[in-house]
Amino acid sequence: MNATSNLVGEALKEVRVRGDKTQTQLGFEFGLGREAVSKYENGRAKVPADVSRNIVGKYDDPKFALTVQHQYTGTGPIWLNGPNVDLHRCSVREKTIEELEEAIVSIKQTSLAKPKEAINPYEKKNMMDMIEEAVEAATALANFIAVTTKHLDISYTGVWTSHYQDLEKAGFIE
Q1: What is the pTM of this model?
Q2: What is each CA distance from 42 to 47, 101, 102, 110, in whole angstroms?
Q3: pLDDT digits (tens, 9 = 90+) for 102-115
Q4: Which of 54, 59, 99, 106 has minimal Cβ neighbours within 10 Å of its Cβ?
Q5: If the chain, 174 residues long, is cut into consecutive pieces of 10 residues, what is the mean pLDDT of each piece?
Q6: Which overall architecture, per CATH, does domain 2-73 show?
Q7: Residue 165 Cα distances to 78, 150, 158, 169, 170, angstroms
Q8: For the chain, what are the domain ranges?
């Protein structure tokens, strides 16, 4: 994915510019030199995970957080930034509803009752289609959460922290 190889650097620059900081000022906040910030922004070096985590913690920027999540795992939802994307909150809401409805239909229509060894190629293709619908829904939801929290000035990291606490209380995570 060459077109997205420096998305973290671009998102970092947006965070810095939105915060009205120079590269030197941002670097000072995180114990970095101006040269390091420049390398991160220009894609000559990857932003280290600990620096990314600190930037997410301080600036609470959903786009940066989503972009970093994708960079370090190479999986999961990604910030949508292509020419056919409309990130207005109403458009994102409608697209999210559409993707969720398609995923629900696909999940309901796909049987998962058979053991892996008994699944024929046609059934496996249907299962793959179902998974793809679920992935599309996950991407739509991730962007919906990011766009909505940003629009409403709700803490993106705070929403996730609260969610993790709820999961822990319910006994779903330790």
Answers
A1: 0.87
A2: 11, 39, 38, 45
A3: 999 999 999 999 99
A4: 54
A5: 69 94 95 96 92 94 93 90 94 98 97 95 96 98 97 96 97 96
A6: Orthogonal Bundle (1.10)
A7: 24, 21, 11, 6, 9
A8: 2-73, 89-169
